[in-house]
UniProtKB/TrEMBL annotation:
One of its GO terms (molecular function) is peptide binding. Residues 261-466 form the Peptidase M1 membrane alanine aminopeptidase domain. Residues 1-20 form the signal peptide. It comes from Tenacibaculum singaporense. Keywords: Aminopeptidase, Hydrolase, Metal-binding, Metalloprotease, Protease, Signal, Zinc. Belongs to the peptidase M1 family. Residues 38-223 form the Aminopeptidase N-like N-terminal domain. InterPro entries: Aminopeptidase_N-like_N (IPR045357), Aminopeptidase_N-like_N_sf (IPR042097), ARM-like (IPR011989), ARM-type_fold (IPR016024), Peptidase_M1 (IPR001930), Peptidase_M1_aminopeptidases (IPR050344), Peptidase_M1_dom (IPR014782), Peptidase_M4/M1_CTD_sf (IPR027268). This is Aminopeptidase N. Its EC number is 3.4.11.2. Its cofactor is Zn(2+). One of its GO terms (biological process) is peptide catabolic process.
Length: 815
């Protein structure tokens, strides 16, 4: 599961206690009374009622003790009958559990098969979702009646954590494994997708078709998947294994541009784990209104709509690529070996998270990977996560485990472990863990034992502090220089409650000469002394950027200028650049920022462009000329866009040719920034260009267009702006964007534009219902009340009509 960071942002914003850790309830691995052996399903759908008719043949065996009852999870279903060998069985059902009386007591290893006829009613499921997975009804009908002409009809499932039991009775626990068969009957126009191989398709006399999907290997019930819709299937392959991309027709030409690195990912992950991709196909499908980022259903991954991108976006970056890697690696960590309980979710999600780093490092280099790791660590640090253990047996709800500890911090911990063991031992340890537990379950202790077996090192200290405890080192650093002895002593004091021990890299710089010292910190107060020839220009601690920590040290401007020029790690270059940029009234500082415009790594170039101050006495023409060249010729379009935005602040008519060229760019990022830059020197040309853009492009660059239309007081475009207001005001972490859309909200609320009032009201209702579990419906009601008050105060000619629209919207949220 790749959680949607936007959804987590919403949850943190609106639910103050969302990430609180409970200390009340111990969450154990679920007891195994029975073991699933095989699950066979036959299903068809009632689109009108959003229900599924099902028949199930489920084969089980007692785990150890003799028993004459079996309990299956089955949520909000109608159970018509339960039989064994055509003989009816007595059962009790309370809308959550189906307790079946067996005809006799069955012993360990005795298999039996139950037949269950039922109807799944996902709209009546009462369990709730989480920050990572916003809904938990298992089976989703998207526009089932075709009422919304702008949205296709689709069906898809989402099993994690325990929602597969919303569409078929099962033992819905991650420590169960079963093979499966599914017969899916749908109208002939629809394509289906499920786990395993499509063995057969049968056309029926009533205009339907039955697809038979067979999956002979064992996996957990939460990984079962069905997808139905009007898709085009784009074929690819890894060796002789089919790799397919299920996309809507509009995106078929771009499917390989979006997903085309998948075969290389499978090859890379097979190589580093030493285990060849273990399944018989790999398919990816995009689902409308999907409730998370993506999900690793075995051989049938589903992605949210964010995956859909056009060439104008892909030329900037493929924003789904990390997610594609994440779900692929899950097919080893999560699907092949599955966490035995949600408390040990780290053995699934930390590895999938770290796979993003591994892929980026392999494909694009260490700087790209380190920048990604930095963003992940910041995500962990910015939440209420410091007191959470990575392996957590105490939590309020299993859904709470899907957070920035299980993902982001867990990935950073694996990065530290890899650094400590070295690559060869780390990858061989992965192989040992996967081999010893394949098609079974795992936990952190098994992971530790695998790495110890390979490396010969005791790792209890590492797992105790990082897996079974909380927090991270908070370090205060000071330096003592002895000019007579020509030594420097680095003093390290830990201020956090839990004492950590860790390897630590320290670089001593004498000019451009760098000497690396690798030390091991074992106490709360540690000191290390190193020789030097000439007085050091910089001491860089955590020089490899590996340790997850907070560092407090006293550095002066000259330190940061030296660090920006010579530091090896992205994080240190970034830190230095931001500090140096605060002092651009100093010529050396300005020149250091200007020099960073030439940095080899594009994200440093972007950061320099975003922070350089061109309105000061050191801003020479040659620097502006350099930025003009970057704007037109940098190999990265995102850098070009940043350069254009920086030049746009100058409002210099001489820059018009740069913006004109940008208006013809294939990059939507460059296009959007060029429109804003042009607007301040040639309004007519910028507005004329914006009016000719296709609606699909306008939606992608909505924020720069909104800025232009608001400053222009273009009331004709308010209806377009209205559809983006809610996302901009509440779902963007960027305060400038929030402020922009708050201005848009106020303008629309007072306007006489009926279409804009309707669009904004509709979007408030849609977002309010979508994020109702975070009390966003209440936020929506308050916003609608504000709009009503604005209408009454401003008194537009269509006031009564607008108030009725607002009243209807409010009623929908208050239902």
């Amino acid at each position: 599961m790749k959680f949607n960071k936007l959804l987590v942002f919403i949850a943190v914003f609106f639910t103050a206690s969302l990430f609180s850790q409970s200390t009340k309830v111990y969450r154990a691995e679920r007891d195994k009374v029975h073991n699933l052996v095989h699950t066979k399903l036959k299903v068809d759908f009632n689109f009108q009622e959003k229900e599924m008719n099902g028949e199930e043949w489920v084969t089980l065996t007692p785990h150890f003790y003799e028993t004459d009852k079996v309990t299956l999870d089955a949520k909000a279903m109608v159970i018509y009958k339960v039989t064994m060998n055509n003989q009816p069985l007595e059962y009790n059902y309370d809308d959550y559990e189906l307790i079946i009386n067996l005809p006799r007591a069955y012993k360990r290893n005795e298999e039996f098969t139950l037949y269950i006829k039922y109807t799944a009613r996902p709209e009546r499921v009462k369990q709730k979702g989480s920050a990572a997975i916003t809904s938990a009804k298992g089976l989703y009908f998207i526009n089932p009646t075709g009422f919304d002409k702008n949205k296709p009809t689709q069906i898809w499932t989402q099993g994690e954590t325990e929602a597969s039991s919303c569409w078929f009775p099962t033992i819905d626990a991650p420590n169960q494994k079963t093979s499966q068969e599914i017969y899916i009957t749908v109208p002939k126009k629809y394509v289906t997708l499920s786990n395993g191989k499509l063995e057969k398709q049968t056309t029926n006399a009533d205009g339907t078709r039955t697809d038979y999907w067979n999956f002979t290997q064992k996996h957990a019930p939460y990984l079962f998947f069905m997808g139905v819709g009007e898709y085009e299937v784009i074929k690819d392959k890894y060796k002789d294994i089919p790799v397919d991309y299920y996309v809507e027709k509009e995106y078929a030409p771009y499917a390989k541009d979006i997903f085309g690195n998948t075969p290389e990912m499978l090859a890379f992950f097979s190589k580093i784990t030493g285990i060849e991709y273990p399944w018989n196909k790999y398919a990816q499908i995009v689902g409308r209104d999907y409730v998370s980022g993506a999900m690793e259903n075995t051989t049938a991954v589903i992605h949210g709509e964010r995956a859909y991108q056009t060439p104008g976006q892909l030329i900037d970056e493929n924003v789904q690529e990390n997610t594609i890697a994440h779900e692929a690696f899950h097919h080893w960590f999560g699907d092949l070996v599955t966490t035995e309980s949600w408390s040990n979710l780290t053995v699934n999600e930390s590895f999938a998270n770290y796979s993003e780093y591994l892929w980026l490092e392999h494909k694009y280099g260490k700087d790209e990977a380190d920048a990604h790791l930095f963003e992940d660590i910041e995500g962990y640090k910015s939440g209420q996560n410091f007191d959470k253990h990575l392996v957590r047996f105490y939590y309020d709800d299993k859904e709470d485990m899907f957070d920035a500890v299980s993902y982001n911090k867990g990935g950073a911990i694996l990065h530290m472990l890899r650094n400590y063991l070295d690559d060869e031992a780390f990858y061989e340890g992965l192989n040992t863990y996967l081999t010893d537990n394949k098609y079974g379950t795992g936990e952190a202790h098994q992971l530790r034992l695998a790495f110890e077996k390979v490396s010969g090192k005791d790792l209890n200290w590492f797992f105790n502090q990082w897996y079974f405890n909380s927090g991270h080192p908070k370090l205060s650093i000071s330096y003592d220089f002895n000019k007579l002895r020509k030594t420097v002593t680095v003093n390290i004091i830990q201020s956090q409650l839990n004492e950590f021990k860790f390897p630590f890299a320290i670089d001593v710089f004498e000019g451009s000469k760098r000497t690396r010292h690798n030390v091991f910190v074992e106490g709360r107060d540690a000191s290390f002394t190193f020789p030097f020839t000439n007085h050091p220009d910089l001491i860089q601690v955590n020089a490899d950027g590996v340790l997850l920590c907070d560092i407090n040290e006293n550095k002066v401007l000259s330190d940061y200028i030296h660090q920006l020029k010579y530091a090896q790690n992205y994080v240190h270059k970034r830190e230095a650049l931001l500090e140096v940029a605060k002092h651009q009234d100093d010529k050396k500082a300005f020149n250091a920022v200007a020099d960073a415009l030439n940095n080899d790594f594009y994200k440093i170039r972007i950061l320099a462009l975003e922070n350089i101050n061109l309105i000061n006495k050191y801003s020479k023409k040659n620097v502006i000329d350099q930025i003009m060249k970057i704007a037109q010729n940098d190999p990265k379009t995102l850098v070009q866009a940043a350069a254009i935005e920086t030049l746009g602040k100058l409002t210099d008519p001489a820059l018009k040719p740069v913006f004109e060229k940008g208006l013809e760019s294939k990059s939507y990022s460059v296009l959007g920034k060029s429109l804003v830059g042009m607007y301040y020197i040639d309004k007519q040309l910028a507005i004329q260009k914006s009016k000719t853009l296709p609606l699909a492009v306008k939606k992608i660059i909505a924020t720069p267009l909104t800025r232009i239309y608001l400053e222009e007081n273009d009331d004709e475009e308010l209806s377009f702006i209205a559809s983006n207001v809610m996302s901009g005001m509440f779902l963007s972490p960027n305060k400038k964007i929030q402020s922009l859309y708050k201005k848009a909200f106020d303008k629309i609320g007072k306007s006489n534009n009926t279409e804009a009032i309707q669009n904004l009201s509709d979007d408030i209702v849609a977002k309010g219902l979508q994020y109702k579990q975070y009390n966003f419906d209440q936020v929506g009601v308050n916003l609608l009340r504000q709009m009503a008050q604005m209408q009454k105060t401003s008194k537009p000619s269509n006031k009564e009509k607008h108030l009725k629209v607002i009243q209807i919207a409010m009623a929908k949220l208050l239902e």
